[in-house]
Amino acid sequence: MKRIVCFFITTLIFGFSMSAEEGMFPLSEIHKLDLKAMGFLVGPRDIYNPNGVSLVDGIINLGGCTASFVSGEGLILTNYHCAFGAVQAVATPENDYLRDGFYAAERSAEIPAKRYTVRLIESYRDVSREILTAIKKKMSYAQRSKAIEEKSKRMVVAFEKSNPGKRAEVAEMFRGKTYVLFVYNYIKDVRLVYAPPRSIGEYGGEEDNWMWPRHTGDFAFMRAYVAPDGSNAEFSLQNVPFRPKKYFPVAAEGVRNEDFAFILGYPGSTHRHKSSHYLAFEENIRMPFMVDLYRWIIGLKEEMSAGNRGVAIKLSSSLKGLWNTVTRSLGQLQGMKNLHLVEQRQREEISLQKFIDSDPVRRRKYGSLLADLAKVYEDKAKRSRRDLTLSNLLSNRISIIMGNAFKICEASHERVKKDTQREAAYMERNFDRTEKQMTMALRDYHEPTEKALLKEMLRRAAAFRDKQAIPAVRDICAGSEESMALDAFLQKSFAATKLNDPKIVSACLKKNNAQLRTMNDPFINLAFALYPDHREMKEDEKIKKGILDQLLAKLVDVKRELLGRDFIPDANGTLRLTRGRIRGYSPADAIRMQSFTTLGGIVEKHATHPGLASYQAPEKLLELAKARDYGRFAHPDLDDVPVAMLYDMDTTGGNSGSPVFNPRGELIGLNFDRVFEATINDFAWDESYSRSIGVDMRFILWSLAKFSGAERLLAEMGIK
Description:
720 residues, 11-stranded antiparallel sheet
């Protein structure tokens, strides 16, 4: 890591600039690139063609992950961890699809994945001028935020009303400055087709998460269905497979070290253009808070899961997400410290301030910019721990029953407003989906875990005093020893509530304020008592967003003046292109990580970690590997089946499931992770340590052909 720090400081002369290889290019930027010189054998119109068929037509957003079509019958390839919720939702101790895997040998056996939707991009256009007309000179900062938000919602609602079956989203590209309207085809009937056993799809478990070498077969297949007339529809036995405009051929021969490759996908969010004050807030406050809280929750849920397979299945999905967040956050914190990222950004800002002060016109326009940014984060830090505690207390990621109770309460306040003035979850276009998410979350409900989680969250909330006190929580603990008071409250509340019934939750979500109060449900009552604190917190967030929108728009302008050119906006969940090469790296002195792992590596890990469950591979896989039964899927340089591969592309969360292409646009792998050193990618990228990890397509095909006998899927993909 010392070598990486030196490289980073000596080569990154000014952090606002972009190194030659960095880039999550939006669709609007692709035509500006010299693709041929980079190594592409496809042109800009082959990638995105608004008037014809292109690669983009085969790329989908699948519930926050990326995925792609691999047949003309709507067959979807994505990560196992992206499809995990679909597997977990139908797994039981009797039909343990997590342990044993799942394969629908016939179309009729494909299982509905009720939490999943497919979004397929159709078009986009810049709407910055239209959105920014909502801002008036005398508006307060909160009013500015609300005006932009409402204008965006009005635009989306108007479009969807005129285009039934389509989905629209306004994405903020540069904060407070540029906005793009994206139009999507929206498919609601998605079904599970194939998932390997967890001992393949998650091989290595948390020991190997974010690590290299990696031997994880992180892949799964799903299918999109539509009504017989081709329109989008909810699940029905009469629905037929969706026929995509584009699906991707598989390059069964794979790739070698140093071969060119590229990715199209939906990276979540990066923060490379934000100030040192944001980075310091993340490093010193938000991430340590979340790591501390999530570690405690992980310990509790693992304890609850021990010895009870039914409970373990219920808690498995949330545990997987918690572990992923904790490990990534620890990597980011380590990266920030090792790279001295805050100090680096502070030095850049000193240089930027000198540039501003060197010209009277710039000084008048931007003179207080950095000081104003510092003030926002100084104010934010004062209340951050209280706000983080309150928001997590009311989140159904922590407690399903409390999270649902709060959404019921919030819905009763929001649904009396005009549709475009509501919080997004309660708009008419989203309400059915919100209801489905809430009711389906109860599949994972486990009351003893809920009680323990809520007791800890209430204990943490009760610790705030004076101006930061949360009265509703303090009242619970009044007049008694805190732990006993919380136990008594929770015992009484869980005995009285009916919010563990999906039908009751659905009914409550549609009730008005007065109707809910007459129910006298203890969790709904607590949600109403906490609502004023939550609204005050959200109002403060809108004020700060309004301030930051203005300041960050100015920061973009002055950076452009300094650099004399444009630069790539941070990732924001919209479709992006990145490219690079199959390439290893050196994380420390005398250590060289190779580009591929193999079946032989699985056998080695299995043999050398006999007591570690996450390294215990299926017996059939071990037998095939030891017999060297590779079929046509061996790597010519390795004389073994490659499992995972490394490449120096620029990816982040949301790129999970992104197809990895060769220069011709053929599938060679499936992106699923980054190395530990590259968790810092969200804040800084550098070719020396930023490596992403994908499942090699040859392992996917080998698994279907040899391990699972899934000949139907191979034939559908054109593999003979």
